[in-house]
C-alpha cells in the first residue's frame, strides 16, 4: 500500500515560481500512481475539488487553496523505443522539464532544444502545449498516460485526444477536469534538422554552418537568459498574457494607426499580435504597482518584486488589460492558471 496520508495547512510559497505566500488546506505529494487509485476509491476524498501542481510555473495564487493539492513527484525518464524515423523518450510527470531537455541533448537526441530552459515539469508541458522559439511540444508529442478520476483507471491519450492549440489543450477545459497526466512520451526525429524559424535564433546561429541540437539549445538558453527573469531570483510565471489573435480586418485597421504593430499572419487569415509590444506601447515596461511589476526587459512578464500577494499581481494585470483595451481595443487573456 502506498502512502495516502494527506498533509494539512502546507505553505505553497516554495512550490510556485511567483513565490506567492498561500497555503494548501490539504496536500499530497504524489510519488506513486497507486496513491491516485486509492484516492479515487475513497468516496470522501474523491469528492474533493483538486488542484494538480507541477512546477508551479504557470500559476497565480490569489488566496489559500481549498482544493486538495496533488503535487506531482513521479520521477523517471528512459528511451522506450526506436524505429527508422524516431526515438521514443518517456518521462514521468514530476521530472523537471529542462532536466529532460538536457538529458536528451547529452545523448545527442535533437527535438526538444528550442524548448530549453522553460520552467516547470514534464507533466505540465502538454497542459498548455508549452512553446517557444518556433516550436511547441505538440510537434514532438507521441502519447501520454493519464489517471482518470471519473473511472479510477489509467489510459493512453494521443495528440488528437489532447486537442492541442496555442497554449491550450483538452486539459484546460471541462472535459479534462478529471484527468491527471502521469507520463509523457516524445517522438524525437532521427533525421534531425534545426528549427530556425524564429529570426533571433537564426541570427544567433549565423556563424555555425551545421549547428547541432546542443548548439541550438545553447543559443536558446542564451536568448532566454538575456530577456527573461530567472524564477529562482525573481518571482514570475513567464509570459503573463497570451499573444492575442485578432481578425485580419482589425489588424489592418490597427496598422493604419500603428504602422510598427508586431503581427503574425495565421493560416486561417487571422493575425496574432505581440502582447509584449502592446503593453510596451502603453508605457508599462519596468513600471510597478505595489510590490508587483512589469519586467524591464520583456513587458509580457509580470514579476513579484518581493512579498507581493496574488491580489497585487492581479491588480497590475487588470490595469494593463484596461490600458491595452482602451488604446488598441484588444483583450489580453492571462496565460497562468489563477486560483
Ligand atoms: N516586444 C516589445 N516589447 C516588449 C516585449 C516584446 O516590443 O517588452 C516585441 C518584440 O520586439 C517582438 C515581439 O514583441 O517583436 C515578440 O516578443 P518576443 O519575441 O520576446 O516573444 P513574445 O511573443 O513576447 C512568446 C512566448 C514566449 C516565448 C517567446 C519566444 C507567448 C505568450 N509567449 O513571447 O513564451 O518564449 O515567444 O518564442 O506566446 C511563455 O509562454 O511563458 C513564454 C515565455
Provide an overview of this structure:
With 339 residues, the protein is α+β, with helices and mostly antiparallel strands. It folds into three domains: 7-72, 2-Layer Sandwich (Uridine Diphospho-n-acetylenolpyruvylglucosamine Reductase, domain 2), CATH 3.30.43.10; 77-227, Uridine Diphospho-n-acetylenolpyruvylglucosamine Reductase, domain 3 (2-Layer Sandwich), CATH 3.30.465; 235-338, UDP-N-acetylenolpyruvoylglucosamine reductase, C-terminal domain (Uridine Diphospho-n-acetylenolpyruvylglucosamine Reductase, domain 1, Alpha-Beta Complex), CATH 3.90.78.10. The chain is 25% helix and 27% strand. It contains nine helices and 20 strands. The strands form six sheets. Strands 6-7-12-10-11 form a five-stranded antiparallel sheet. The longest helix is centred in the last third of the chain and has 19 residues, at 310-328. The chain is globular, with a radius of gyration of 21 Å. The mean pLDDT is 96. Residues 132-133, 198, 227, 238-239, 242-243, 262, 274, 276-277, 280, 285, 298-300, 335 line the site of uridine-diphosphate-2(N-acetylglucosaminyl) butyric acid.
> Which class of the largest domain in CATH terms?
Alpha Beta
Termini separation (Å)? 32 Å
Output the structural class. alpha+beta
Estimate the global geometry from the Cα principal axes. globular
Report on the biggest sheet: 5 strands, antiparallel
Helix and strand run? EEHHEEEEEHEEEEHEHHEEHEEHEEEHE
**Rg, nearest Å:** 21 Å
Overall helicity: 10-25%
User: Count of DSSP E strands?
Assistant: 20
Low-confidence stretches: none
How many structural domains does the protein architecture include? 3
Q: In what order do the strands lie side by side in the largest sheet? A: 6-7-12-10-11
**CATH arch. level architecture of the largest domain:** 2-Layer Sandwich
Listed once per kind, the bound small molecules are: uridine-diphosphate-2(N-acetylglucosaminyl) butyric acid
The number of helical elements comes to 9
Q: How would you state the average pLDDT, rounded?
A: 96
Instruction: Determine the strand fraction and express it as a percent band.
Output: 25-35%
Amino acid at each position: 500500500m502506498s502512502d495516502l496520508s494527506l498533509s494539512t495547512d502546507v505553505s505553497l510559497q516554495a512550490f510556485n515560481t511567483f513565490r506567492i505566500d498561500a497555503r494548501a488546506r490539504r496536500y499530497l505529494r504524489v510519488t506513486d500512481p497507486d496513491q491516485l487509485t486509492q484516492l479515487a476509491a475513497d468516496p470522501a476524498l474523491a469528492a474533493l475539488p483538486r488542484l494538480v501542481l507541477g512546477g508551479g510555473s504557470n500559476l497565480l495564487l490569489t488566496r489559500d487553496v481549498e482544493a486538495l493539492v496533488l503535487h506531482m513527484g513521479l520521477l523517471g525518464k528512459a528511451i522506450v523505443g526506436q524505429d527508422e524515423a524516431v526515438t521514443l523518450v518517456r518521462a514521468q510527470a514530476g521530472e523537471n522539464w529542462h532536466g529532460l531537455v538536457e538529458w536528451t541533448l547529452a545523448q545527442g537526441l535533437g527535438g526538444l532544444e528550442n524548448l530549453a530552459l522553460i520552467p516547470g515539469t514534464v507533466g505540465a508541458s502538454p497542459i498548455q502545449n508549452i512553446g517557444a522559439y518556433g516550436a511547441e511540444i505538440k510537434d514532438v508529442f507521441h502519447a501520454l498516460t493519464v489517471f482518470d478520476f471519473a473511472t479510477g483507471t489509467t489510459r493512453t491519450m494521443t495528440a488528437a485526444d489532447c486537442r492541442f492549440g496555442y497554449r491550450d489543450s483538452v486539459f484546460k477545459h471541462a472535459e479534462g477536469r478529471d484527468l491527471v497526466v502521469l507520463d509523457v512520451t516524445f517522438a524525437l526525429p532521427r533525421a534531425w534538422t534545426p528549427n530556425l524559424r524564429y529570426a533571433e535564433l537564426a541570427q544567433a546561429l549565423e556563424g555555425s554552418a551545421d549547428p547541432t541540437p546542443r548548439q541550438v539549445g545553447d543559443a536558446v538558453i542564451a536568448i532566454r537568459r538575456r530577456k527573461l527573469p530567472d524564477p529562482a531570483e525573481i518571482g514570475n510565471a513567464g509570459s503573463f498574457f497570451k499573444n492575442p489573435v485578432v481578425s485580419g480586418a482589425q489588424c489592418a485597421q490597427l496598422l493604419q494607426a500603428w504602422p510598427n504593430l508586431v503581427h503574425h499572419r495565421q493560416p486561417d487569415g487571422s493575425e496574432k499580435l505581440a502582447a509584449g509590444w502592446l503593453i510596451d506601447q502603453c508605457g508599462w515596461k519596468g513600471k510597478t504597482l505595489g510590490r508587483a511589476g512589469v519586467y524591464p526587459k520583456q513587458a509580457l512578464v509580470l514579476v513579484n518584486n518581493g512579498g507581493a500577494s496574488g491580489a497585487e499581481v492581479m491588480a497590475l494585470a487588470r490595469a494593463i488589460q484596461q490600458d491595452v483595451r482602451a488604446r488598441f481595443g484588444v483583450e489580453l487573456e492571462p496565460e497562468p492558471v489563477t486560483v
